[in-house]
Amino acid sequence: MANPVAQAGREARQRHGWWRSNRFLILRRSSQLLILLMFLSGPLWGTWILRGNYSASLLLETIPLTDPLMMLESLLAGHWPAWLVWVGAAVVLVYGLIGNRVFCGWVCPLNPVADLAAWLRRKLGLRQSASLPRSLRYGILIAVLVGSVVSGTLLWEWVNPVALMGRGLIHGTGEGALGWLKGLVAAFGAGIWLIVALFLFDLLVVEHGWCGHLCPVGALYGVIGSQGVVQISAERRENCTRCMDCLHVCPEPQILREPLLLQKGTPRVANETCIACGRCIDVCAENVFEIKTKFHYSGAKK
Ligand code: SF4
Ligand code: SF4
């Protein structure tokens, strides 16, 4: 029988303990924090590990990293990117070998905001939601690209909340903790209201509204990573008790329907919208889920 939404993960905590039922969540938060600290290492400690921002950066003053959406916009707007930008985009394409939207789950600074809204939704029992098609994000992605051609500018970068949040966190650095806080407020400026609006949109209007339905950055990363190596698999789906905890916490629950609930075809969650967050693994008391590589399925276990 399905567990109450607000109690998703409780059974796993009771059975497997706190660490084991939160391990991917803790690892993801550590990854997000570590990347932010790498950006802040220059202003705070005088050694740049990552210089730049979430759209374009330089790792250890050597390896460039470029947001592929920004590069596409630049090309379509008629600006030929510098060679370093091309190399940076190629490096990010290697990310595609890892799989799906790993950026969303493990890197993006907006992910904790979206997760907080989803967590509050569950705790407050806010299940009513306006409905938007999840394919809308691909429409927005196309509109952004066409808009860049027409306007001759990097259209999305004016409002991109991923970049905005990153800029606020990174360039909000001042002297000392107080200076950092003051700088943070100044750097976010009016943009903080966009982040607050997205949070409230997720909390009160559409469940997983921004990341699950609108964000073109996540949509493009999904397309790039769709043939990636890492995949979540409902490997022991025959053990599923239909407690629904994984569906309660998954930001893209529709992708679990076929492999888990219908138990049709391959057990892998072979969908480009999976953000590889591992939360389904955390909260499943029956240990149904595992991380596999796609090569695992080229053998006998299809
Ligand atoms: S969908 Fe967009 S905002 Fe959400 S985590 Fe992915 S990149 Fe970040
Ligand atoms: S299927 Fe699992 S790993 Fe993929 S998004 Fe849902 S909870 Fe996260």
TrEMBL record:
<feature type="transmembrane region" description="Helical">
    <location>
        <begin position="80"/>
        <end position="98"/>
    </location>
</feature>
<dbReference type="GO" id="GO:0005886">
    <property type="term" value="C:plasma membrane"/>
</dbReference>
<keyword id="KW-0813">Transport</keyword>
<keyword id="KW-0472">Membrane</keyword>
<dbReference type="InterPro" id="IPR017896">
    <property type="entry name" value="4Fe4S_Fe-S-bd"/>
</dbReference>
<keyword id="KW-0479">Metal-binding</keyword>
<dbReference type="Pfam" id="PF12801">
    <property type="entry name" value="Fer4_5"/>
</dbReference>
<dbReference type="InterPro" id="IPR017900">
    <property type="entry name" value="4Fe4S_Fe_S_CS"/>
</dbReference>
<feature type="domain" description="4Fe-4S ferredoxin-type">
    <location>
        <begin position="228"/>
        <end position="260"/>
    </location>
</feature>
<keyword id="KW-0004">4Fe-4S</keyword>
<keyword id="KW-0408">Iron</keyword>
<feature type="transmembrane region" description="Helical">
    <location>
        <begin position="136"/>
        <end position="159"/>
    </location>
</feature>
<keyword id="KW-1133">Transmembrane helix</keyword>
<dbReference type="InterPro" id="IPR051684">
    <property type="entry name" value="Electron_Trans/Redox"/>
</dbReference>
<keyword id="KW-0812">Transmembrane</keyword>
<dbReference type="GO" id="GO:0051539">
    <property type="term" value="F:4 iron, 4 sulfur cluster binding"/>
</dbReference>
<keyword id="KW-0411">Iron-sulfur</keyword>
<keyword id="KW-0249">Electron transport</keyword>
<feature type="domain" description="4Fe-4S ferredoxin-type">
    <location>
        <begin position="265"/>
        <end position="294"/>
    </location>
</feature>
<feature type="transmembrane region" description="Helical">
    <location>
        <begin position="33"/>
        <end position="50"/>
    </location>
</feature>
<dbReference type="Pfam" id="PF13237">
    <property type="entry name" value="Fer4_10"/>
</dbReference>
<dbReference type="GO" id="GO:0046872">
    <property type="term" value="F:metal ion binding"/>
</dbReference>
<protein>
    <submittedName>
        <fullName>Quinol dehydrogenase</fullName>
    </submittedName>
</protein>
<feature type="transmembrane region" description="Helical">
    <location>
        <begin position="179"/>
        <end position="201"/>
    </location>
</feature>
